C-alpha cells in the first residue's frame, strides 16, 4: 500500500496565518502539522508517500521533509493547481499509485490512540474501501454516516443541515486499486469539486465500503479552523504531558519500526541542536 498526503488547498479559513505559508506547515503544539499525518501513514506500514501541495508552497515542504530517506521511507511530490475536491488527489496521484492500493490522509488531520498502529496495519490488503467513523457534536460540518439497527452503514451525506447521526468520517481513507477509476467517474458537485463522499457512496452502493468505528481509546483532531487548530495544540500538549512522551514524531516512529538505527536517530537529533525536540530523540536511546 502507498500513501498520499493532501496538503494543498487555499487555507482561507486560517487566514491571515496561511498568507506566508501552507496550513499544513503551521505548528500544532511542538511540531509541524504535516508530521502528524505522515507518522500515521508510517504506523500503517506505508513506506512510499506522495505529498500533494500547491505550486508555490512545494519547496517549503521539500525543505522540511526532503526525500524521506532520513526516516527510512520514500517521499515524492505532486502539485494541485487548484483545490477541486479531495477525490482529486487520487487523479493527481494516479501514476504514483500504479497497481497498488492506497491510503489517503488529509494534511490537517491528527490521529492518536492506544493500539492505533495495529489498527492501521490491519487496513492493508482489504478489498473495497475502508473508512473510520467518529462521534462528534457538530456532524453538520463533515461527511455524516448513517447506520441501521444492526450497525451497518446505509448512507453518507456531505455536510447535511439535518444530520442523521453524530458519526462522521475523518480524513483518513484506505482504498483498493479501483479507487482511481471510480474517481474518474465522479461528476463535480455544485461547488465544482470532486467530492470524497461521492466516491464513498460508490463503494457503498457496490457493498464494498468497510466502516471501522473509532472507540474511546482513539482521538481524532481536525485543524481546519482557528479554534480547532488551537484545541488540537492543547489536545496534543495534554496527551504528551499525561503519557510523558511525544506523539507522532517521524524520527521516533521510524526508529521504533526498525527503519533507522540508533546512530541514525542520534544524527537526526543533532539537527535540532539543543532544542527540546532534539533532547527527546536523544533520550529515546537511553
From TrEMBL:
Keywords in alphabetical order, please: Magnesium, Metal-binding, Nucleotidyltransferase, Transferase
Catalyzed reaction equations: dTTP + alpha-D-glucose 1-phosphate + H(+) = dTDP-alpha-D-glucose + diphosphate
A GO BP term, please?
hexose metabolic process
A Pfam entry, by short name: NTP_transferase
Q: Which residues form a coiled coil?
A: none
Family designation: Belongs to the glucose-1-phosphate thymidylyltransferase family.
Physiological role: Catalyzes the formation of dTDP-glucose, from dTTP and glucose 1-phosphate, as well as its pyrophosphorolysis.
Q: What is this protein called?
A: Glucose-1-phosphate thymidylyltransferase
Q: Which organism is it from?
A: Rhodoluna lacicola
Amino acid at each position: 500500500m502507498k500513501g498520499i498526503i493532501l496538503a494543498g488547498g487555499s487555507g482561507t479559513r486560517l487566514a491571515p496565518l496561511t498568507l506566508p505559508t501552507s496550513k499544513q506547515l503551521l505548528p500544532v503544539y511542538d511540531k509541524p502539522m504535516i508530521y502528524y499525518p505522515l507518522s500515521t501513514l508510517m504506523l500503517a506500514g506505508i513506506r512510499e508517500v506522495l505529498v500533494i501541495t500547491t505550486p508555490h508552497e512545494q519547496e517549503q515542504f521539500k525543505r522540511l521533509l526532503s526525500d524521506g530517506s532520513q526516516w527510512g521511507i520514500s517521499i515524492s511530490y505532486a502539485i494541485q493547481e487548484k483545490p477541486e475536491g479531495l477525490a482529486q488527489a487520487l487523479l493527481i496521484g494516479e501514476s504514483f499509485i500504479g497497481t497498488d492500493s492506497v491510503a489517503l490522509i488529509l494534511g490537517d488531520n491528527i490521529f492518536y490512540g492506544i493500539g492505533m498502529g495495529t489498527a492501521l496495519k490491519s487496513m492493508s490488503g482489504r478489498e473495497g474501501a475502508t473508512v473510520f467513523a467518529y462521534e462528534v457534536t457538530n456532524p453538520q460540518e463533515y461527511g455524516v454516516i448513517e447506520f441501521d439497527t444492526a450497525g451497518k452503514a446505509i448512507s453518507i451525506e456531505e455536510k447535511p443541515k439535518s444530520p442523521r447521526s453524530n458519526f462522521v468520517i475523518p480524513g483518513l481513507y484506505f482504498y483498493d486499486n479501483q479507487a482511481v477509476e471510480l474517481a474518474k467517474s465522479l461528476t463535480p458537485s455544485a461547488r465544482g469539486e470532486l467530492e470524497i463522499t461521492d466516491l464513498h457512496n460508490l463503494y457503498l452502493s457496490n457493498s464494498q465500503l468497510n466502516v471501522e468505528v473509532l472507540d474511546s481509546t482513539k482521538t481524532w483532531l481536525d485543524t481546519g479552523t482557528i479554534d480547532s487548530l488551537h484545541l488540537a495544540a492543547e489536545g496534543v500538549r495534554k496527551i504528551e504531558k499525561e503519557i510523558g512522551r511525544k506523539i507522532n514524531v517521524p524520527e521516533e516512529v521510524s526508529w521504533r519500526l526498525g527503519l533507522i538505527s540508533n546512530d541514525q536517530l542520534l544524527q537526526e537529533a543533532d539537527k535540532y541542536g539543543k532544542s527540546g525536540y532534539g533532547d527527546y530523540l536523544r533520550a529515546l536511546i537511553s
